[in-house]
Specification:
The complex is a heterotrimer of chains A (435), B (345) and C (278). Helices cover 41% and strands 9% of the residues of chain A. With 435 residues, chain A is of the alpha/beta class. In chain A, helix 15 links the parallel strand 11 (301-304) and strand 12 (331-333). Chain C is globular. The chains are: A alpha/beta (435), B alpha/beta (345), C mainly alpha (278).
């Protein structure tokens, strides 16, 4: 039997694990520094050439977001289903003159599989994370995580590797057996945080006004429900009660962000469900997300910042008309929306033709001439079909890289390539009255 | 004798000041707001549990004893900006609208009270988003004026839900404690409404019902005589019906282990009690330790909640933790006695 | 392709491999367990309670039901995260076994329950621990549930990305509409050309999300071998596992050949070829 003092201690220890006041959650970054001093791991530091921008997290801690020399940790679902997601991001980086490395020497985080089928375990997940971290480290580019689930998983894995010595040592042994070492990045950074950090430069290059657009935001679960203390908050966005991304950039671009009652609900992706229980995914997406977005908020577009969410919300709607839910609300990632307002080609760059819910009405509202763009794109497809060379955002990988993760150093777009921000202030396009 | 400072003029502070005056002690009563009576006045509390007497009947006489009392120097719209020990007591700077004056006091009673939890922090209930989701302190005023109407369309409700423990017993928002009042006040509100409007259905969603002590009687009567319905489980989502006219509360009935989804005209949140901003300020001014919850810590919590263990400093009311109004008034009396003893020694 | 194959659950639950125990009082209405099921269930339950994560994820429970209320899966399935936590906290081998028959797979892993739980439990995490156990021990119901995932598991194990554009065949994803797959009917060009129109070279493939270098995929497989993932998979599907091992063997050969072919370049960029391992 425990006495009263012991019981109190147990309760205190437990409450300290997840205390909302901010004083009691251990800052894993401090512990990481201590372990580096002991030679247990290497911390991949953010350096001045990464041009970091400071942000605040849930508990008011400072998080530094690197904006330059970035290693693209791509998302398997984005690249497979929504390729306009990564291409818009790289295009915006080119426009703003930020350098990066996009290479074939990356695996996914494998957490989609883990959350879907559990055919993995924490040691394996941590080792996969650490392998990718090490690859970024050896190229001297800071990892930028495209996917919300990878972001959530890597936050969890960094915490696990810091807090659990046994797993840390196992993972380090695995890595050393392949000439790698245990490296943890100083911050786990989601691309939407990069977008938020780049707000001034994006807004300076805005060519198309977004003021006529009413957007609803779906907040990706794994961005802020997993390891909540690493998510970015800002007093200017819902008084700091909700994550600052991706709402922040939409407000900065002049869009109206409309609230709706189920904003905190998941999209229905379910990892396993999106493939083998699609009747669940689409029912949830249409009833719990799309319907309130349309009926309560009267939105023109749903904006989110994760792979699974764009997929589920977008692909689930087409069949909705069979269920009496003919909404067809366009669903875009924040970065696609950003690229469009910066003047990106809707098909060649934003790759909107992969989306299941039509975006034509949204493009009309933004004043983007999609009919001409579509003709251009069809021409381009014909050229490719007859053997024409594809247009690329950066020099292609060398042939040797099909096999080897050669460390060729950082060579990709140099900063002089940036397009200068246009001088005139964007003029609002045909908005709608009365909203 | 230098005056005794009473900080805060809610039920506890009013009671302390009134008792000090009756003991013949000069009293300096300082209240941040422009009115007397604290949260009950601010939110127009209606009837008080357990006897369902109007709040005015309890607080009115207290306020009368304090106002225009020659022994009590009353400063509303004022606060203590600085405090430092001076002899047995303290030297404080009293800041009013345009003036700052330095005063010496022989003892201090901290009756700085609580704040209602801001229900927007539990966003799943849609408070601040749907006009027909109310905080129970707002309903209290409506009941007081007998105008229980839906803010969205001004129509009388047919069915009302109360959700208990909003901002209490919840590690996610950092408030693991019980507010002690949410259950009894919600049940009391349901009874009041059913008394006047038996056509309105009343549902209470609870995880535990803590009508402790003699208040249990009200809980039983609410079912037996007033037909209030109790469902064990939490509402986790509030949405709109098809036409957008009514609210739908979705939850799990944890006794039947099955989902529940009920349309309501009004949803009322029993928001918890948090340490008042005045309590935080008082703790810094007088170097009083606070517990992990942010309430002032008495010297021996197991013995009484009045003695701070610091020279000349005493507590009354919800500054040390959630309290009912009679408890706060009783503590005000006790604190007055202890402060008077200290000042006279 | 079997990705979307989804057998009705009612039919599947009729499968029984051995004679059941003699009838006993069955007040809960649970499915009866065979003797070997019971032994396995007890072994798994012991492992479950000994898993260090159990102690870390399960703190206590007020049974308030807030987790279930916010749970997307609970809206559409006979599933409740509260029940899962109760099994973890106060359950026994039978309740764990019962949950493994179907319920643990209803969870969406969205972590809403974790964010809501007033006690700070890691409910999504403890469900994953249950799932891992059922995979490792090859529980029959789990094999059935995961049988549509052979294709994505193959991709995952060999190149470490879980989808490829050629998985999204219009016939199998008819409910996604004509535009989702960038199909030939709509655009008049093949899937390969559609991928070529993406301005990122490593995405111009239809067989995985992006082109993954051979070295990277071999490193990934080494992780799977050394961390027990391959053994887990063997428990679930031995045939698939052997096929994966063969596939990787081919990639290793490919890698060794390429190392010879690119000897000069490797030595220029990296140093001696001998130390360059995949």
């Amino acid at each position: 039997m425990l006495n009263a003092t012991q019981i109190r201690q147990v309760i205190e220890e437990r409450t300290e694990r997840r205390h909302g006041t901010g004083k009691k959650v251990v800052d894993v970054r401090e512990e990481m520094d201590r372990l580096e001093d002991q030679g247990e791991l290497i911390v991949h530091r953010i350096r001045p050439e990464n041009r970091p921008v400071e942000m605040k997290t849930l508990f008011g801690w400072t998080k530094r977001i690197p904006t330059n020399r970035l290693w693209h940790h791509k998302s398997c679902g984005q690249c497979g289903n929504i390729p306009g997601y990564p291409s818009s991001l790289l295009w915006v980086m080119n426009e703003t003159g930020r350098s990066y490395l996009n290479e074939p020497h990356q695996t996914s985080c494998t957490a989609w599989n883990y959350h879907g089928t559990a055919t993995s375990n924490p040691v394996a997940l941590a080792a996969v994370a650490a392998r990718n971290f090490h690859r970024a480290y050896e190229t001297d580019n800071f990892p930028l995580i495209h996917c919300g689930t990878s972001f959530g998983d890597y936050k969890e894995m960094r915490k696990l590797l810091v807090e659990n010595a046994e797993i840390r040592h196992k993972v380090r042994d695995v890595l050393r057996s392949m000439d790698r070492d245990l490296v943890l990045p100083e911050e786990i950074v989601h691309y939407s945080e990069w977008v938020q950090a780049m707000t001034p430069e994006i807004v300076a290059r805005q060519k198309i006004a977004a003021s006529g657009v009413v957007a609803t935001v779906h907040e990706p679960c794994h961005y802020y429900k997993m390891v909540p203390e690493d998510a970015i908050y800002d007093d200017a966005v819902y008084q700091g009660q909700r994550p600052a991304v991706p709402t922040g950039i939409l407000l900065a671009l002049g869009a109206t962000v409309a609230d709706y009652s189920t904003w905190y609900d998941c999209c229905g992706f379910g990892f396993r469900h999106i493939l083998s229980e699609r009747e669940f995914s689409r029912s949830f997406a249409n009833l719990r997300k799309i319907r309130p977005m349309v009926e309560e908020a009267h939105s023109d577009v749903a904006i989110t910042s994760d792979t699974g969410c764009v997929t589920t919300l977008d692909k689930s709607q087409w069949i909705g008309k069979a269920h009496g839910q003919p909404y067809l609300l366009p669903v875009l990632s924040d970065i696609q929306f950003v690229a469009l307002t910066m003047g990106a080609h809707p098909y060649k760059i934003a790759q909107l033709h992969w989306h299941a819910a039509p975006v034509d009405r949204l493009l009309d509202r933004l004043g983007i001439d999609w009919r001409t763009a579509k003709t251009e794109f069809l021409d381009y497809l014909r050229q490719l079909k007859s053997g024409g060379a594809p247009e690329l955002l950066h020099p292609p990988r060398e042939d040797i890289e099909r096999f080897f993760a050669i460390n060729k150093g950082q060579v990709l777009p140099d900063e002089t390539r940036a397009t200068p921000p246009p001088s005139p202030v964007p003029v609002p396009s045909a908005g709608r009255g009365g909203r | 004798m230098n005056p005794i400072l009473v900080l805060g003029a809610g039920p506890a502070g009013l009671s302390a000041a009134a008792e000090l005056a009756s003991l013949g002690a000069p009293t300096l009563l300082v209240e941040k707001e422009s009115y007397l009576g604290g949260n009950p006045t601010r939110w127009h509390y209606s009837l008080l549990a357990p006897d369902l007497r109007p709040a005015e009947e309890i607080l009115g006489p207290l306020i009368q004893r304090v106002e225009h009392n020659p022994k009590i120097e009353l400063h509303t719209g004022s606060l203590i900006a600085r405090a430092e020990p001076e002899g047995k007591g303290y030297r404080v700077s009293l800041q009013s609208k345009d003036t700052v004056q330095t005063r010496e006091v022989s003892a201090v009673i901290l009756a700085t009270g609580f704040d209602h939890f801001d229900s927007r922090r539990k966003f799943e209930y849609g408070y601040g988003h749907f006009p027909d989701v109310l905080d129970f302190k707002e309903l209290e005023g409506m009941i007081h004026d007998d105008k229980v109407l839906r803010p969205s369309d001004g129509k009388p409700p047919r069915r009302i839900a109360w959700i208990l423990c909003v901002g209490s017993r919840d590690i996610q928002i950092g408030n693991p404690w019980c507010c002690r009042m949410g259950c009894v006040v919600s049940i009391k509100q349901a009874v009041e409404i059913r008394q006047k409007h038996p056509e309105i259905d009343a549902y209470i969603y609870y995880m535990d019902v803590r009508t402790y002590g003699l208040w249990e009687d009200l809980y039983w009567k609410s079912m037996q005589e007033y037909g209030v319905k109790f469902i064990r489980g939490r509402i986790g989502a509030v949405s709109l019906t098809e036409g957008g006219k009514r609210l739908i509360a979705t939850g799990e009935d944890t006794i039947l282990s099955r989902p529940t989804e009920v349309p309501f005209d009004l949803i009322v949140l029993a928001s918890g009690m948090e340490p008042g901003t005045g309590t935080k300020e008082a703790s810094e001014l007088f170097h009083v330790p606070v517990g992990p919850e942010g309430f002032l810590t008495p010297k021996l919590s197991d013995m009484n909640t009045i003695d701070s263990g610091l020279p000349g400093i005493y507590f009354a009311g919800a500054a040390t933790g959630p309290k009912a109004i009679p408890d706060a008034i009783t503590e005000g009396m006790g604190a007055a006695l202890r402060a008077f003893q200290y000042a006279r020694e | 392709m079997s990705v979307v194959a989804h057998l009705p659950r009612r039919v599947l639950s009729l499968v029984e491999e051995e004679a059941p125990d003699p009838p006993s009082m069955n007040l809960t209405g649970r499915e009866r367990m065979t003797v070997s099921d019971r032994t396995l269930a007890e072994q798994m339950f012991t492992e479950f309670r000994q898993d260090p994560r159990h102690h870390e994820f399960v703190l206590g429970c007020l049974n308030c039901g807030e987790c279930t209320t916010g749970c997307p899966a609970a809206r559409f399935y006979d599933f409740s995260p509260r029940e899962m936590l109760q099994i973890a906290q106060t359950g026994d081998a039978t309740t764990l076994w019962d949950a493994m028959q179907e319920k643990i797979w209803a969870c969406c892993q969205c972590y809403t329950c974790n964010m809501r739980c007033r006690f700070g439990n890691d409910i999504a995490g403890i469900i994953s621990v249950m799932r891992e156990l059922s995979v490792r021990h090859g529980v029959e119901a789990t094999r059935r549930t995961l049988s549509p995932f052979n294709r994505s598991l193959t991709l995952l194990m060999t190149v470490g990305t879980q989808v490829s554009s050629d998985m999204i065949q219009p016939d199998f994803f008819r409910d996604w509409g004509p535009f989702a797959a960038g199909s030939e009917q709509v655009w008049g060009v093949s899937a390969e050309v559609m991928r070529k129109a993406i301005p990122l070279d490593v995405l111009q493939t239809t067989t995985s999300s992006w082109e993954v270098s051979v070295q990277t995929s071999l490193e990934l497989f080494r992780i799977y071998e050394q961390t027990g993932v391959l053994d887990m998979l063997r428990g679930l599907d031995p045939d698939l596992t052997e096929m994966l091992v063969d596939l990787i063997e081919e990639r290793r050969e490919e890698f060794t050949e390429a190392r010879e072919r690119y000897r000069t370049e490797i030595e220029r960029m990296h140093g001696p070829v001998a130390t360059f391992s995949g």
